[in-house]
Fold this sequence. Notes:
Elements: H1 2-8, H2 13-25, H3 29-42, H4 47-59, H5 63-76
Amino acid sequence: MFSEAIHCNPKDHRFFGNGSYCYWCLELYPSVLSDTQKSIQLTPDWTKGYFRKGSALIEGQCLSSLLSMWTLLCVCL
């Protein structure tokens, strides 16, 4: 469903964000990271994108990447 929405409007960050949540529920963490990265690129101030990316990094045991993202986010704020 979200793939079709993205195809129709690839510039809407919400489609990538909601798609990433679906992937998270299915424990497909690489896909979560891909979609959250796209949502963050489209709308860098959308905090839910960072939350979902961080959740996927934690679940995928990518703790060094999580620390890097958190550090960058804190510097930007």
